[in-house]
């Protein structure tokens, strides 16, 4: 397939502003700035990402004064998080817990097929949460930006559909940078219909390998999800509107079988469920993490504290906000760990509303400086994990958090709260690098289950084996190169002549 090529050595990234959807792209931008100063880097997103791109530019110039700055092109409108939050709030309104604002983790109930039966009603809105007019508005903005920048290649976020439509309709040379698990991207090209029977259905939380008794319901669930996407009233209405505006094949899904569009993957074969086929246009680069400088340079005081002893980091991502009930349960579990071990705990606690949960016992550990509770980490999470002083990473199962812990070679405790985070929890258990405590009550928690999970990973009978497997996988992951590998490939494509193919050589 022949694509329109723009100016040599000019690259345009277009992503949403959510950390989970943009971190890999921002990390790759950082590597481009530092290692490929000949490349002119442009970035288009929502205003929330301006600070992140400015920050990596400053750090890159400190390392290499010859590097260029990132040219930022602002998109006006609601980002994915804002749009999908409204969808989730609507879904949660009748399921909200009594303690404070709605808990969006309850939007679909527990993992399993009851969750899928609820989820299928909302899937079209979750994949494309913008209304048709907003989509058209962003599409128009992005077409103008692409025309003005005229990049050699556009680097895309696989979930930001206005950008996918713009790049496709303008027939621009493009690369997709994918942060998600490989089986989710490549299941449709696996032999013998493996997408239906081999891999756990989306939102099911089923174990891998699937027990024979779960295969029939898994096949049904996958087909039901596919049917819902094909027949989604919201998607059909949006496609009809956008078609009248002249967009060709609007909301056309990315297909892993389309070999004309290279995919750079954060995930590696060793980090997930086994695959029989990885097409040549899919390049596994390894975890692409934002690690602009050592933790000691970003927050010297915190780095010094972490270095005093083994530290458990509890960081449930940028989206998770605790209500009083969840925060109280987590604090109870933390206190149990502090009573039974000599470790330190660093807990990122972002509250839904104002409340206090600090008990006398917790105050004792805070005064001893063994427990720190913060609402923001000045240090990049990956930089903190890579200090060698963190002994366990507790997170929500987001792909970035999962791969950051893998890169650092750390055991993981995963507490998934949403349908799209169950996979990482099951992959960690399958690989023997982590655990998912409380599967039977998820997404709810109780203090006993959490504390038992923490103690199991720290001092349990399998803790040493988990540590060894996590460390070994970390060594493998680091050999892939991550954002440096992705940046090198993007720079090569950007430097090629206009008549070059869109395939990596």
Automatic annotation (TrEMBL):
Boundaries of every Erythromycin biosynthesis protein CIII-like C-terminal domain copy: 369-440
Molecular function GO terms recorded: glycosyltransferase activity
Stored SUPFAM superfamilies: UDP-Glycosyltransferase/glycogen phosphorylase
Annotated InterPro entries: EryCIII-like_C (IPR010610), Glycosyltransferase_28 (IPR050426)
Tree of life domain: Eukaryota
Gene3D superfamilies: Glycogen Phosphorylase B
Protein name: Erythromycin biosynthesis protein CIII-like C-terminal domain-containing protein
């Amino acid at each position: 397939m022949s694509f329109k090529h723009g100016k040599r050595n000019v690259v345009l990234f277009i992503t949403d502003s959510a950390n989970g959807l943009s971190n890999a792209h921002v990390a790759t931008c950082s590597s481009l700035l530092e290692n490929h100063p000949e490349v002119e880097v442009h970035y288009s997103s929502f205003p929330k990402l301006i600070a992140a791109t400015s920050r990596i530019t400053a750090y890159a110039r400190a390392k290499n004064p010859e590097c260029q700055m990132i040219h930022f092109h602002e998109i006006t409108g609601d980002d994915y998080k804002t749009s999908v939050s409204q969808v989730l709030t609507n879904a949660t309104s009748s399921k909200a817990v009594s303690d404070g604002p709605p808990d969006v983790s309850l939007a679909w109930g527990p993992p399993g097929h009851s969750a899928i039966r609820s989820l299928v009603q909302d899937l079209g809105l979750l994949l494309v949460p913008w209304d048709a007019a907003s989509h058209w508005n962003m599409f128009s903005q992005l077409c103008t930006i692409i025309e003005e920048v005229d990049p050699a290649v556009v680097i895309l976020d696989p979930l930001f559909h206005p950008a996918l439509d713009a790049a496709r309709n303008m027939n621009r040379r493009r690369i997709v940078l994918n942060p998600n698990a490989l089986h989710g991207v490549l299941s449709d090209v696996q032999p013998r219909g493996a997408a239906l029977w081999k891999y756990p259905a989306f939102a099911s939380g089923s174990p891998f390998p699937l027990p024979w008794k779960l295969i029939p319901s898994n096949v049904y669930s996958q087909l039901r999800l596919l049917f819902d996407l094909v027949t989604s009233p919201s998607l059909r209405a949006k496609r009809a509107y956008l078609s009248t505006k002249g967009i060709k094949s609007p909301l056309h899904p990315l297909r892993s079988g389309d070999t004309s569009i290279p995919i750079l993957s954060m995930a590696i074969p060793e980090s997930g469920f086994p695959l029989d086929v990885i097409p040549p246009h899919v390049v596994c680069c390894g975890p692409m993490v934002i690690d602009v400088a050592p933790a000691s340079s970003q927050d010297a005081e915190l780095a010094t504290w972490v270095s005093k002893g083994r530290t458990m980091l509890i960081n449930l991502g940028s989206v998770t906000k605790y209500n009083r009930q969840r925060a109280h349960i987590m604090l109870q579990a933390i206190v149990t760990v502090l009573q039974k071990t000599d470790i330190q705990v660093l807990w990122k606690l972002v509250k839904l509303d104002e409340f206090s949960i600090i008990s006398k016992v917790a105050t004792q550990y805070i005064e001893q400086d063994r427990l720190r509770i913060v609402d923001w980490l000045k240090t990049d999470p990956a930089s903190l994990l890579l200090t060698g002083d963190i002994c366990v990473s507790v997170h929500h199962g987001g792909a970035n958090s999962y791969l950051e812990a893998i890169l650092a070679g750390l055991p993981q405790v995963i507490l998934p709260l949403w349908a799209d985070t169950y996979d990482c929890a099951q992959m960690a258990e399958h690989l023997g690098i982590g655990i998912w405590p409380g599967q039977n009550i998820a997404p709810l928690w109780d203090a006993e289950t959490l504390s038992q999970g923490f103690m199991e990973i720290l001092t349990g009978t399998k803790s040493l084996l988990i540590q060894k497997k996590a460390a070994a996988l970390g060594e493998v992951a680091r050999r892939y190169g991550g954002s440096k590998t992705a940046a090198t490939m993007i720079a090569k494509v950007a430097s090629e002549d206009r008549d070059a193919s869109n395939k990596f050589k």
